[in-house]
Amino acid sequence: MGCTSVDVHARSFRGSGGTGGKADVAHVGERLGVQVNLRPWDEAAAACAAADVVLCTLPPRGADALAREFSALRAHRAGAVLLDAAYDPWPSAIAAAWEQAGGTIVPGLEMLLYQAVEQV
Fold first, then answer.
1. What are the φ/ψ torsions at residue 37 (nearest 5 degrees)?
2. At what angle do helices 64-73 and 93-100 cross, to 10 degrees?
3. What does the DSSP assignment read for 94-107?
4. In this structure, what is the dihedral angle of CA atoms 42, 46, 68, 66, given to the nearest 10 degrees?
5. Alpha-carbon distance 104 to 37, whole Å?
């Protein structure tokens, strides 16, 4: 899709079950020819306010605090897209904040549906 760099914001980059965490993320980016920039979680709201595309993979209600921080920035997101993996409850707090800022949302249920079709 022409993306040459990605900023990844995470609460932790530690691996689980003996995986490398940061090294794993960087390795995937390297294999895809995409520069991966690992960023601290406390910068995520401001990054969301500036990004063209945001992919949120947090569990249900996991982005509620982020949504509050994002809303406080009063960003205008017309033309920006949020892909939110959450689908219950819907809308998630981050999806509602994004929509209120004028952005476009691709809901988790829609992404789940496309994934299921590909698997079949």
1. -105, 110
2. 20
3. HHHHHHHTT-EEEE
4. -50
5. 24
pLDDT digits (tens, 9 = 90+) for 83-110: 999 988 899 999 999 999 999 999 988 8
And the tokens for 5? 């760099």
Q: Look up residue 31 and give its two tokens.
A: 């294999």
The CA-atom distances, in angstroms, between 59 and each of 17, 56, 64, 94, 108 are 19, 9, 10, 12, 11
Q: Are 56 and 94 in contact (CB under 8 A)?
A: yes
